[in-house]
Amino acid sequence: MSTMGMSSSLVPQQGSGTSWLPSSASMRGVGREWNGWTLSFHGAAFAQYDKQLTKRGDEQSGVIDWEMMMAMRPVAGGALQLNVMTSLEPFLLGGNGYPELLQTGGTFAHSFMHDRQHPHDALMELAATYAHDIGAVTGSIYVAAAGEPALGPVAYMHRPSAANDPFAPLGHHWQDAAHQSFGVVTLGVNTHAIKIEGSVFNPREPDEHHLIADYRGARLDSYTGRLSWAPTAHVVASSWWAYLNSHDRLDPDTRMHRYGAAVTTQDGAWSNTLAWGMNLHHHSGSSHELIHGAPGASPHHHASSLLLESNRDLDRGAVFARVERVMKDGEELGFQGGDLTELYDVRSVSAGFTRDVASLLALGARGSVNFIPATLLATYGTRTPAGFAVYAHVRAGHR
Fold first, then answer.
1. Strand 123-134 to 111-117 pairing
2. What does pTM read for this prediction?
3. What's the pLDDT tens digit per position in 153-192?
4. CA distances, 249 to each of 110, 113, 115, 300 (Å)
5. Which of 262, 276, 355, 391 allows an S-S link to 48, with CB 3.0 to 4.6 Å?
6. Is the pLDDT of residue 2 over 80?
């Protein structure tokens, strides 16, 4: 999204957290000037009926939403920006979120969630950014009680390539799941084309009993770095590397490295994102034999994800698509025995469209087909589990 700029200190291609989008990208929103502040608001809500097939599927009517308010003004020769982002998902969807076949990540009822996408907490971001030009470069600090470290691509809710798709990518927890971290400090320096930043943050994930925020055991004991490059107004490439300490509520002794890269493009009405992410888990002695199924197995476990998504705006609507490949293990898919680190090659194709029916309202539909290995046939009853959703999409403001 493009923020409403005040000076060179506030980067016009800002995405979620401190990430970059192409400066030619835009997002619907409204804004005004008030008492020296530049105020803006944007957000979206999808009121949907979601039906996922197979014996692991489910159906649900619910609302997926997010709202973001920003306030910016000059301060001490630089620029200050305040962000607040909220969601009603924990109250409207419940603690176990919405059905999505082969989705994993998060916990519910003291178990790992599978075939569902967890809801976001009510407080998704509460952050302040201060940026100041220092000669030919800009230095910045981002401090968030809830926010996003310099880890991953632009979060999917903020990517124009995913603007009309209400569902989270299947590789969400390999790529951009850290966008809601309860405690973040990021330092960065950038020119108009290159940005280098580093963060310390609290990686511990919330559960269904903490609907607004979750600071249990919160420590800034994880770190990450990211390099972003914007060679033109239409392209941004980024890469990152991170260490997450005790991020897993069910196994707090587990450590993880996460790294990856992404390219986002914006060519007029056509938006695209290509992202790759890798998780490298380091299991503790207490969970090693249980998870690996053999005392001599390696305590290091890695799995990757690949995503390509695209959105094309039309005169009165949009069409969109997403293709993914993710390596998911038995523990993530909810298995109870055997070698829980055995990887399963999960592939997915989804596509949909929206049709504008009013200035701020569109109707849409989305379908997905997944392709799974023969070893998961008994689990899902088919090698091509599928699902669909229909929805009303309410947007804030105009492009």
1. unpaired
2. 0.92
3. 999 999 999 999 999 999 999 999 999 999 999 999 999 9
4. 9, 12, 19, 19
5. 391
6. no
Rounded Cα distance, 288 and 178, in Å: 25
- For residue 168, what are its two tokens? 């989270």
> Distance between CA atoms of 384 and 381, rounded to whole angstroms?
9
Helix (H/G/I), strand (E/B), else coil: 331: coil
Q: Which among 41, 102, 109, 23 has a CA at the least distance from the CA of 395?
A: 41
| Tens digits of residue pLDDT in 79-120 | 999 999 999 999 999 999 999 999 999 999 988 999 999 999
Tell me whether residue 25 is in a domain. Answer: no
Task: Return the structure tokens found at 235.
Answer: 């392209």
Residue 54 amino acid letter:
T
Rounded-to-10 torsion of CA 109, 167, 27, 308: 120
Answer yes or no: is 79 within a domain: yes
* Residues whose CB is less than 8 angstroms from the CB of residue 335 and which lie 6 or more positions away in sequence, other chains included: none
Measured distance CA(248)–CA(253) in Å, rounded:
8
- Tokens 């770190």 appear where? 223
* CATH code (residue 158): 2.40.160.10
